[in-house]
Amino acid sequence: MHHRPLLTLATGMFAIGTDSFVIAGILPDAAHGLGTTTATAGWLLTAYALTYALLGPVMATLTTRWPRRTLFLTGYAAFTTGNLLTAYAPHFGTALAARALAGLGGAMITPAAVAAAATLAPPERRGRAIATVMTGLSAATALGAPLGTALASLTDDWRTTLLFVTTLGLLAALGTALFLPTLPTPPTVPLRTRLTPLTDHRIGLTLLTTLLAYTGLYTVYSFIDPALDRATGGNGTTLATLLFVWGLAATAGTLTSGRLVDRYGGRRVINTALTLAALDFALLPWTTAHLPTTIAALLVWGACGWGLLAPQTHRLITTLPTAAPLLTGLASATVYVGVAIAPLTGQAGLARLGPYWLGPVGAALIALALVTAEAAHTAIHRKETETP
Fold this sequence. Notes:
Blueprint: H1 3-25, H2 27-33, H3 38-41, H4 43-62, H5 68-87, H6 92-120, H7 126-155, H8 159-179, H9 191-195, H10 201-221, H11 224-227, H12 229-232, H13 236-264, H14 266-282, H15 284-287, H16 291-307, H17 309-319, H18 324-353, H19 358-386
């Protein structure tokens, strides 16, 4: 198996994943630097995540015939330029456009990276190759986001974080230029074909569950600095440590959820994760008042939130196995649409309730996700019983 190309792809995914999550940890400082409020600065998260989510299938379609190395290097050029422009943006409008440009770069790279991993490995090692590349995203939650937050705190400059992400992107681009072999271009799949599974109500309900859950989960994460300031005392290094704890729990949840699905079935894992997450978020106004209980809350949040991805993807693929590659792309896009909507939900919560009550707002959305998860299960079960 080609280890250097896979590690290069994983580095790129680490950079893109870090960029997705790191802004939340420096949001108040970025807002101050750009002359706006923390709530308005939440649009920086939305601009990146929404562009990344919505343009993923579009860019995969438009760039199908591009040589893979050209596609990656163009994506990294957009990604690194977007981050550099954000760091040195003279005003908020420029920063917003720069975040969208970085998101466009991520949208070009991610689907191609997963496909390239599958191409680089022989069939018997394909799953391992894809997992190696996707580990970059998991590691971004455990290491990239807290490290970026800590850098901003240590240097007392939020721009350092964006320069860190830019450097990661440049390293991935250099690795691509040096180590990525010539890969075959994939077959052309029209955009309409990529979106066809959305017309199946079983798929629609499953994706709606993901959308509601991740909007709820990231309503708090988008404004995590003010939401946890009672526990951190406003200390950026303490916040970075808490994000590291959250990231470790997220990684553990991701790694163990697959085995739990195999042992107990997807429905039980999905419902348990959503129930625990909803209860955890409902209690955040009280648990985040003290550091020990904040750590406990973040452990549950990370494990349940990220532990939901595998069973949700499993439900999609087992419902419509013939569309598996398209469904995994839609599943990823749906997560990022939720991440994009969440800052807007958080803004409304901040204005009306304040930062400490964002948890119950998220809990309400997660509880709705539990309802749609059961509706999806019912629809899938009904279809199975109807099929001869």
